[in-house]
Model the fold of this input.
Amino acid sequence: MIDKQKVQQFAGSFAGRIVVPDDPAFEEARHIWNRRFDRRPALIARCASADDVRRAIEFAHLNNLPAAVRSGGHSHAGHSTCDAGIVIDLGAMNTIEVNASRQLLRTGPGAHGHSINEATSAQGLAVTLGTCPDVAIGGLTIAGGEGELMGKIGLTCDNLQAASVVLADGREVVAAETDDRDLFWAIRGGHGNFGVVTSLLFRLHPVQRVLHGAVAYPIDKAGEVLRFYRDFVPTIPDELTTAVGTVVIKGQPMFAITVCYCGDLDEGLRVIAPLRSFAPPASDNIRAVSYLESQQEASSPAVGRSSIQKSGFIESISDSFIDAIARHLKHAPPDSIAMMNHLHGAVTRVRADATAFPLRREGFDFWISAEWEKPGDASSRMRWAQDFWKDIEPLTSGAYVGGIPEEPAERVRFAYGANYPRLVAMKRKYDPGNFFRLNQNIGVEPTLRNDRPG
Done:
């Protein structure tokens, strides 16, 4: 229990708002989208500025509190909240400034994808953002940031030009290629291990109209679709970013290939033609739309539901992988997903050691998830995901750190691969006390192993 007088003194120097357990706003404020993590922090610091972030870190140190950092609250592992600690909530730091003449975007970490897309699309510009519109830019960027433009312009973190970061000791620094390059390397994929990002500057790209949508097939055609897709993806240009997996159309689960083509539209129609001809689809809604319209079609996770997720990087679509997908989809529970994003093009032309994000070879970020609202459904949904993952995990050769759930440290080392030793060195440099530990944590232990967990 924290002394109330200390909290009052802290609040008096705080420009934002402090929410404590007896505050009427606390119950809503403490929840994140994944209700599987039902935690009760000692207080929530809704920061209004970088100075508020610094004060929140100082208060946590003085009171020996664990600290969770939240930009949008979409951490699959529940790291956006904590028990008996402080939540440093960046949601109100959501400013968006577009400099159209210089093709630059400056945002606060709490700005959501839908708001950013509206602001940039008004100028005919865009940056890679995630496919969930409620995900905030801060957490997305430091994880890497996969999205529907990545084949052409790279990940979200590849377009980051500079970031302001408050470190564990309270210092605020600017990380960029020309200033604090070590930190700039680390925050592009190193997740929340090094500090709190309070402002981000991105390069924008001209994007106006795209070919967008999906061709969908009955769920029992998943194996056939994957075999076609395996042969199709080696032929596609940078302009086409695809994903394949389960979707729900008019209440029916389907297996679909989704596309976003951001080049010449006539050429795009030629490129995607094989998707429409290898087998008769049950649904085909691919069409030319504005980029903003294409992004507005995305939906956010339902509020008040629990979720389990497993994910890993698949270098190739093997027959064993296809068989596992088809087998487990036969008895998939409602509200479950099996999906993979194709990493290629601009993503793979960045050296694996150029940023902390390590997945710079062509392949697929695969994930499965299951959701539930009724507590009685939890065990069956979790068992399905865990059994599915047991068959898939041996086929993986890495992982997208933003999709790693609450797993052992070995899984984090496995995800970063050859970049892990440098990340440990950066952790020792910027956060030697491991203050920022409620995340996919990079430890400071002296003995390192980079082989995959056995």
The radius of gyration is 22 Å.
